[in-house]
Amino acid sequence: MYGIMGNGSLGLLRIMKATKYRCNNNNNDPPCWRRISGWNSNTTLLLHHHHHDASKYSTSSCKGLYAGKKHLWLQKNVIMTMVIMLGFLACFFLLDYVTAISSHDSASSRFLYLNEKRSADSYTCKKQSSPIEMYGRLLNMASSALAEKELKQESSNLWVEPYGIASSWEPCAHRKLHNTPGNLVENNGYILVSANGGLNQQRVAICNGVAVASLLNATLVIPKFLYSNVWNDPSQFGDIYQEEHFMNMLKDDISIVKELPSHMKSLDPEAIGSQITDADLPKEATAADYIKIVLPLLLKNGLVHFLGFGNRLGFDPLPSHIQRLRCKCNFHALKFVPKIQEVGALLVRRIRKHSGSRSMLDTELLGKFIDKKKDHDSAKGSIKYLALHLRFEVDMVAYSLCEFGGGESERRELQAYRESHFPFLVERLKNSTSPISPMVLRKMGRCPLTPEEAALVLAGLGFKRGTYVYLAGSGIYRADSRMNPFTRLYPNVITKEDFLAPNELEPFKNFSSQLAALDFIACATADVFAMTDSGSQLSSMVSGFRSYYGGDHAPTLRPNKKRLAAILWENGTIGWKSFEERVKKMIQEGQKVTMRKFGKSIYRQPRCPECMCKQP
């Protein structure tokens, strides 16, 4: 306690102010890269702007006391006794105050997680992990540049789309078109879909299933989700999405039922030859492939079961009404269940410290759980935040075959992981006559971006050190050492676990897809969304949502990994100004507003006549 209190009563007052913000830490220590030295290890709150004048609380000199040498011992003992008594009283009231605050309803607690004094040497671990830095020189320059920017006005251009033409595109996939076939009376049978993967892979499978049902004039049975040992989530459609809304939104386009009619429930699709796996259809199959391969089975047996259905429907060429239906499914028909919407709204509101509705994105994703009433904190102004999907999990790192500056121990660890999880990859490497070296892979832009590289990009763009960075996902490889360079530049890293109490997260425990839905909401509604891997499903789906509903106030940052690798390759010589200019140019070129190109994902790039309407 004495270490925390610091300079007497000033430290005590700061602690008492700190207890106003309830700490939620699941009774576990936070990761080493999230802790602050000098604070109790169970405290995860980061406070900011509590400046006080120490002189206001200093003990005034005692007047009127007899100061003679004879009674000097009495004066000292009286003061000492008073200090001890005040200390005990302060501890008692502090304990009582903390207990009262901890018992307060979590929904009414106000969370504030700012700390501009956090630095790389302020993180302590029971088992210390040394920071791993690949670009020490650039990090030092970035740190100096951010320090200089603290007193300067941040450019408002960082928080809006750089191209105003983005606002000329409006959502319209939900509008009824007179020339579309619609939901025909005659029906060729039933389509069953068993989707694999995580939340976003399943979302793609659902909308592709809707498109195929329309294409083959069939009835879609509400899709099922396959259980995977990777995701460990038994959730089904109704646990994540609103079934009735899904059916009602698409009722004019296709027929949807919750289950097969009773006389067909006993049929075994595999036994009757109506089960379609990924091996039966080419990846990115065309409409002609479905008519040739699937339709005959559907007409013969009355049903077809797509097992593990994912990217088995290409984007072009397809009839325009099928493309429109995919967009309508993704952007309008799939609404998260109230349980997810409510906690998602709570998460976003606490991050922003503001309860009012902000955008069309908020309305579409959070539904009725947006509080239209302004609370007393909203007058102080909401907080902007940047959401970052940092793809640096061990499986992705190992599969890339790249090296990340961790030395021989890292190489051994990743090789052991490959042998355990990717034996086919190891075998292919053994049989390869000309394997690509890790250095060449990095130059080609084939390596996942490290947290250090992501932080350098943000610094190069001009985001200030105090920026809130919401970190989506989890399981960063060697997080304690890898996140150190990131938090050195951007200490205000926040996650859903920081803002939601254990009892609020409890209903989502062991349901990874439902937890991913909370990340989806936090990323899609963020003031800025940054990705490190444009190929990831979460990044693709979130960026598509922001393009569809965000207008010109939902910028998305997409680093070109090959160009970034070329810039970082000059770590030893490049000046900071040149680094900034090249990074900004790279990002701005990735933000250009263009129509979807042939063959590109309509979920990620919805700006096309089938999905959106362009205003003159």
Kindly describe this structure.
By secondary structure, the protein is an alpha/beta fold. It has 3 domains: 136-161 and 337-392 and 448-614, Rossmann fold (3-Layer(aba) Sandwich), CATH 3.40.50; 190-333; 395-436, no CATH class. Helix content is 41%, strand content 7%. It has 23 helices and 13 strands. The protein has helices at 2-5, 9-18, 72-102, 136-149, 199-215, 237-240, 243-249, 287-301, 320-333, 338-352, 360-366, 394-400, 407-421, 423-431, 438-443, 451-461, 479-489, 496-499, 502-505, 512-524, 537-549, 561-568, 576-590, and strands spanning 169-171, 190-195, 219-221, 224-225, 255-257, 275-276, 303-307, 385-389, 468-472, 493-494, 528-531, 556-557, 612-614. The strands form 3 sheets. Strands 2, 3, 4, 5, 6 and 7 form a 6-stranded parallel β-sheet that branches. Strands 10-9-8-11-12 form a 5-stranded parallel β-sheet. Strand 2 (190-195), helix 5 (199-215) and strand 3 form a beta-alpha-beta unit. Helix 10 packs across helix 20 (512-524). The longest helix has 31 residues, at 72-102. It is globular and about 85 Å long. The N and C termini lie far apart (65 Å). Mean pLDDT is 80; it is low at 1-28, 35-74 and 95-128.
